Amino acid sequence: MSRALIAILAAIVVLPLVVRPAIASEIWIFAIFGLGLNLLLGYTGLLSFGQSTFFGSAAYVAGWLLKHYAINVFLALGIGVAVGAASAALVGYLCVQRSGLYFIMLTFALNQLFYFIAYQWTGVTGGEDGMPGIPRPDFLGIDFGEPLPYYAFVSALFLLSLWIMKRIVESPLGKILQAIRENEVRAEALGYDTARFKLAAFVIGGAFSGLAGVLYAMLFGIVPLEAIGFVTSGNVVFATLIGGSGSLYGPVIGSFVFIWLSESVSTLWARWPLLLGVAFVIVVLFFRGGVVEAWARFSAWRERKWRSSRQTG
Amino acid sequence: MAILETDRLTKSFGALAAVSGVSLAIEAGTLHSIIGPNGAGKTTFFNLLTGALAPTSGTIALDGRDITGTPAHRVPHLGLARSFQRTNVFPAFSLFDNVWVAAFARAPSRKGIAWRSADRYPEARERALAALADVGLAGKADRPVREISHGEQRQLELAIALAASPRVLLLDEPAAGLAPEETKKLVALMRGLKGRYTIVLIEHKMDIIMSVSDRVSVMHFGSLIAEGTPAEIQKNAEVRRAYLGGVAA
Ligand SMILES: Nc1ncnc2c1ncn2[C@@H]1O[C@H](COP(=O)(O)OP(=O)(O)O)[C@@H](O)[C@H]1O
Ligand SMILES: [Mg+2]
């Protein structure tokens, strides 16, 4: 078992003892969302600024079905994954042919379009008031309405997501996406239809976003309009960059830092986004690899110090 | 029979005809060089053959079949692979990963592409290692690209093309920027590759051309102005003029 996995398992156990279970759940839900984004951002080199499109669409559709048809939890999750993947297929199809700033702006613009639909379609989404009253149905006698069982459920799904993403990034697909990030022209010249591969990254990332969206809706019992807004899209990019987009675990650490900070510091200090802004600038200026890189550098420094103290002492 | 043949192939960039009515037949199993001064249109000609650029007019045939207009990502699957004049690799990858990506592109089956570990495609792995061994980089398979010299990067460029197990290899100035010692090694390598592949070689250095080519075509201002054996080309007056003009410019 890898050290990263041990650390994550330990965190899953300890977290609900330190913070409210709802916050603990939110951390792993946001981590699932980040895993999906990072397949695009870190592995394929595509900065999607519209991930909440998939997160929010899934939350609305599954939330609505949960609310009005009392569907089974797993069916709700499955539908969320499907809606996330389908909306990502649509957005991806329109975006993968563009590159650079055009690409970013297009993901953002399409996100705004989805936001606008949710804003206007008050009969279904509740518009600005959000879509409240989303239940967490029982399953096999387990009452997910209780915070801790739901936390355990979310944690299990996070571990499953992490395992699936690990398989994907270590598969040929993961290598090919990285090759596209490194040199798209050459990847194409080697015989890869790069547009199709980028679309695949979108769809997989969208599926993860969709799963996160449904879990989020069930966690808070509501789909707020912000769930499909650009702030949510920005937050997941932000969290992933802070954690480090260069590794599988970066977005997990990023989610941890981001949610924990936003919950703990925001109650003390209303201008906490300022603090996040500062953290972001530090990351961009000094630690392009985020917390993961900072930690690697710190370990290397400690190692050197330890060695030299042994030599002199 | 010609394995690769172009018929009046033309590419214009606005008013400039970078490639102009080029009809060229490459015989299977030969090493056919294309020479010509800078800006003659040699690289553009390769870009047309590989689908990176669409021709303005004319056709390309492989094994007698018209492949004009085939998208760039399909061309390698027809058995055409190229190396680039300016090193064009995957900078953050190890040497092995660079060639592995090329080898996997041509894997007979992509089953399990999103799920099976990338290590578990023995055929792609062997082809990747063989390509590195061919160019003498087997010992550095795990090194990242940035740790190897410029000369070694040129060899890697070649290995990536080889890993695609092509029938026709298009090599765009593989000796560009090599030291004399490295150039010698490259010539030896070219001799080894000859016969295993049909090779189209773009080269500047006359000594390399003369020592490895079966046939030589000369390009000047987008057009072919001569074709023959190395000895014939060396004697050709028009070639001399073009070349001297090109060097002086
Ligand atoms: N994409 C392009 N757009 C415009 N002009 C180009 C392009 N590619 C090549 N050219 C022009 O076509 C001519 C031939 O270039 P090239 O094929 O690179 O020559 P060579 O490889 O023989 O040195 C040059 O004048 C070059 O500037
Ligand atoms: Mg050239």
Which labels suit this protein?
heterodimer; A: 313 residues; mainly alpha; 2 strands; 1% strand; B: 249 residues; alpha/beta; Rossmann fold; 2 domains; 6-stranded mixed beta sheet; 8 helices; binds adenosine-5'-diphosphate; binds magnesium ion
Q: Could you characterize the architecture of this molecule?
A:
The complex is a heterodimer of chains A (313) and B (249). Chain A has 14 helices and two strands. Chain A is an all-alpha fold and 313 residues long. In chain A, helix 2 packs across helix 11, helix 3 (52-69) crosses helix 10 (194-220) and helix 8 (172-182) packs across helix 10. Chain A has a two-stranded antiparallel sheet with strand order 1-2. Chain A has a domain at 20-229. The model of chain A has no long low-confidence stretch (mean pLDDT 91). With 249 residues, chain B is α/β, with parallel strands linked by helices. Chain B has two domains: 1-79 and 168-249, P-loop containing nucleotide triphosphate hydrolases (Rossmann fold), CATH 3.40.50.300; 89-165, no CATH class. Helices cover 34% and strands 25% of the residues of chain B. Chain B is built from eight helices and ten strands. Chain B has helices spanning 42-49, 95-105, 122-134, 150-163, 180-193, 206-212, 230-235, 237-248; strands spanning 2-13, 16-27, 31-35, 57-62, 65-66, 80-83, 168-172, 198-202, 215-220, 223-228. In chain B, the strands form two sheets. Chain B has a six-stranded mixed sheet with strand order 6-7-8-3-9-10, sandwiched between helices. In chain B, strands 2-1-4-5 form a four-stranded antiparallel sheet, covered by helices on one side. In chain B, a hairpin with a 2-residue loop joins strand 4 and strand 5. In chain B, helix 2 (95-105) packs across helix 3, helix 2 (95-105) packs parallel to helix 4 (150-163) and helix 3 (122-134) crosses helix 4. The radius of gyration of chain B is 18 Å and the shape is globular. The termini of chain B are far apart. The mean pLDDT of chain B is 92. The interface between A and B is medium-sized, with 25 and 35 residues.
